[in-house]
Amino acid sequence: MTSTPRSARSTLPFLPGYTAHDLRFNSRKPQTLSWGPGGSTDAFHKLKQKVHKVPTLNLAIVEKLRDPFHRYDMSYRSPTHDEKSFMRESARNTYRPAIPPAWLQHDRQVLKFSAYSQEPVYESPKEAFRIRCCNVYFYLEDGTMMVSEPKVENSGMSQGTWIKRHRLPKPECMGGGLYTCDDLRVGCTISIYSQLFRLVACDQFTRDFYQHALGVEMEADEDAPLDSFRASEIEDNAPETKALIAARSARLAESKEYHHLSAGGNRKNAKLEQYLENDRKVLRFNCYWNDHTKYGTRQYYTLHYYLADDTAEILENMSRNSGRDPYPTFWRRSPLRKSPNISAIPGMDVESVVYKPEDLLIGECVQVLGRDVFLYDCDSFTRDFYRQFMNLEQDSIPIENPQLVHTKLRFPPHIGFGSEEDSLASCLRLRPRPPQRDMKKLIADAEKVMRFEAVLVNSIPQDQKRRFVVAVFLADTSIGVWEFKNRNSGHTEGKFANKARRKNPMTRMWFRQSDFFVGATIEVNASPFRLIWADDAAFNYMEEHADEFPRSNVDVILSKIAPFAEDLRKVPGIMEWKDLQALAKEMDLHLVDQEVIALARAFGTYQGHPKCRATIDVSRVVSALQ
């Protein structure tokens, strides 16, 4: 028996009379039934209403292509290459049609209704029916529905998906067909497979959809009725009922334990019972401790309280680059005592009071190893525990990190050799540099000196007649003091204090030029001096540099006495500077000697030492104020 390639598909021998033609080897029928979100559909079934029409070819354009001269037809412009690319990309990026279908327009849009169904109960003498609450979902993309019952712990009933998602038929009494969104309203009753469901509420999206899409105002939400079982459960959970049940249970438990022990039974293992009920239940608190020592900072901890055996552990939350040793356990798991100051010895009965859950409250402190650890937050399990078993709401206190204060190291005090700038240079650099000096000021003010006449104000009668000269050298603001010759005073004339830079004991800063004026009190070598006069060179220098010496600035002095211009008009024309100072004091205006002398030099006559006479023309002062 032979075979040829022509008859390779056939099993018949290649002999006369055995040639077969048009053999069908695949006789399977094609499957036309397919399944989708809405159920079974027929693949070859044509839609009765077509939303989009199938585009047809324009044969007129094809007729023009027969003419070989159609390329020379200039009646219309051919699109360029860039325009063709743009149209092609535009068509490619347009993923939504002009009229989107329902599965695209309402994708992932679900109407949610709250409903209940009444189920009869035959085997219980306490109730005749039971209300079962559920949720009805209507999917807008394909018109399917689903009914689901929320799960309740320890309900004794199988809950979850009640009716799977598919298109639900309406009963014949309601017109037949399938349920649509027009059939669902709050307050209506629907029948699904002979089971009645009353819709009592809906979510906000469902209300907005009915109002904007369908123009229907949904009714107000209703409350599901209570059955006997639910009503008795609410009554049993009332605080008064719980208190009575707890008291009765405590008495019965005590009596039961007494009879059990009388019959020779064993005592209950309270710790084992606590362990079995609270195993792997841990309260977690966030806390911190403020270390107020010299180099201390705020340290954060995590406190774990184990309900199984009433023990606690405290773990350190070390920050990055904290510089501390990596020992994260601050308190090893053990009972946390409230007063651990007493160290018990064998044979000593000491009552040990440990921290309980009721002692761990947010906003309170826990004392651990002499540290007041502040509790400021806890986790969700801890909040639920306190809310359920202690009827207490634990807060959360926002904590702000303390402001970092940089403690700058102080420089060592001056040792007495050389100037302070020389000693400070050895602290700033490894190789000390000489302090910089203002050479321009040294050259410009090399020979300029302000001299003041001064007296001692130390309340010693023998020093009342002593007179001194206080010299201020403007080049480096150094100060020197000399004493005038006074016969039979018991003091030698000459140098009282060497020329040197000195500090003001009141401000602890170096003396400045503006600190010296007539009427000022300065302290040199622990001796207080009051400046009573100055030479003409000092007055001229202070008036030339009025911005540095405000008590010699005439404009500043006039603005100071401007509110008293009306009182000055009543004063005679010319008066002594001492009299003007006394008059200003009566008007509650304090003018130092330097300010009155500056007015005399500007609006009167001035005579220097030894007469020390100065008069002021008040009329010129009043006219200057205007």
UniProtKB/TrEMBL annotation:
Keyword DNA damage part of the UniProt annotation: no
Location of this chain's protein in the cell: Cell projection, Cilium; Cytoplasm, Cytoskeleton
DM10 domain: residues covered: 107-214, 279-390, 446-546
A Gene Ontology biological process term: mitotic spindle organization
One Pfam entry name: DM10_dom
Family matches, as Gene3D superfamilies: 2.30.29.170
UniProt xrefs under SMART domains: DM10
Record's GO cellular component terms: axoneme; mitotic spindle
Annotated PROSITE patterns: DM10
Entry's Gene Ontology molecular function annotations: alpha-tubulin binding
Keywords in alphabetical order: Cell projection, Cytoplasm, Cytoskeleton, Repeat
Entry-linked PANTHER family: EF-HAND DOMAIN C-TERMINAL CONTAINING PROTEIN, EF-HAND DOMAIN-CONTAINING PROTEIN 1
Protein name (record): Efhc2 protein
Organism: Symbiodinium pilosum
